[in-house]
Amino acid sequence: MSQPLVTLIAGPTASGKSRLAMERARETNAVIINADSQQLYADLRVLSARPSIEDEAEIPHRLYGVADAADAWSVGRWSRAVMDVLAELAAQGRSALLVGGTGLYFNALTRGLAEIPPVPIEIRDAVQAEFDSEGEAPFRRQLVEIDPAAEAAIFPGDRQRLVRALSVHRASGRALSVWKGETQPLLPPGSYDAVVVEPPRDRLYASCDMRVDAMVAHGALDEVHALTARKLDPGLPAMKAVGVRELAAHLTGELSLDDAVTAVKQSTRNYAKRQLTWFRNQQKDWRRRS
Fold first, then answer.
1. Tens digit of each residue's pLDDT (9 = 90 or more) over 121-167
2. Structural domain of 210
3. What's the CA gap between 236 and 244, in Å, rounded?
4. Which stretch of 19-23, 154-158, 163-167, 283-287 has the lowest confidence by average pLDDT?
5. Distance CA 168, CA 176 (A)
6. If DSSP codes are grouped into helix, strand and coil, which group holds residue 48?
7. In terms of domains, do 12 and 140 share one?
8. CA distances from 101 to 17, 62, 224, 258, 282 (A)
9. Is 21 part of any domain?
10. How many domains does the chain fold into?
11. Measured in whole angstroms, how far is the alpha carbon of residue 106 from the centre of its chain?
């Protein structure tokens, strides 16, 4: 008996990937599994545009709203949870659709997750300070001497990944690309189908704006009020979700509602643009669907 098919559906926010997943699930009796870091959190149903209650009732959905905002899920934790679900579904003979916009999740599945030792905070802070004082070009020249493969894979302006690459070398004495080269994919080649949903940019941005309006109309302000009332660490992933900071600024009187909504729309479009860039660089060989 052949192994049940795993399908990966990636794409930027508001691209229509969840709609595609529902269509595929109806056709194949598949289970939909979350591959979006924001949709993990129970506190962010509205802001993360999680599947509707009606969709969840029609088709089984897994790993949506399973985390509390006070908890920070790593890529490794998500990967372990996904592999547990996939093993369960394989035993039942059911196919799986993994859908989301978090590129690191898809990389962990198809390329592997390196077991890199933690970087001490003092090293990370020192490297960040170097980047901020030197600028990107000199920083890249330093990185290319110790890890040219990592430097070449990081697109311009990605401060976080540049700092990460140099920090790992400083902390471990080994290049980040060497660590990653020792990993094995969680999903072997040939065991999955993969597609990126990539609509034209003007259509994507219009969809982003409409989604923000719908979120505000369906309780985003109440959701942010409840979240900020918990006074959680602002560095937690849920607190850094798109829209939290802007709508919280309205709730404290710093921004009018119109200005807050405009800011959320801009942040959402910027996020979608970063996702598009990621998938074009990292998932070059995946099929495209507009």
1. 999 999 999 999 999 999 999 999 999 999 998 989 899 999 999 99
2. 201-267
3. 12
4. 154-158
5. 6
6. coil
7. no
8. 9, 16, 22, 27, 13
9. yes
10. 3
11. 9
Residue 1 has pLDDT above 50, yes or no: no
Q: Is residue 61 part of a domain?
A: yes
Distance, CA of 156 to chain centre: 19
Q: What's the CATH code of the domain at 253?
A: 1.10.287.890
Alpha helices in the chain (DSSP H): 17-28, 53-58, 75-92, 103-111, 121-134, 136-146, 148-153, 159-172, 176-181, 201-217, 220-228, 244-251, 257-282
pLDDT single digits (tens) 225-281: 999 999 999 989 999 999 999 999 999 999 999 999 999 999 999 999 999 999 999
Please indicate, yes or no, whether residues 70 and 189 belong to a single structural domain of this protein. yes
Residue 193's domain is classified under what CATH number?
3.40.50.300
**Shared-domain flag, residues 88 and 220:** no
Structure pTM?
0.83
Q: Tally the residues of the chain.
A: 290
Q: Are 18 and 133 found together in one domain?
A: no
- Look at residues 121, 205, 110, 124 and name the one whose alpha carbon lies nearest to residue 163: 124
For residues 214 and 261, membership in a common domain is answered with yes
Mean pLDDT of 94-123: 92
Domain shared by 174 and 63, yes or no: no
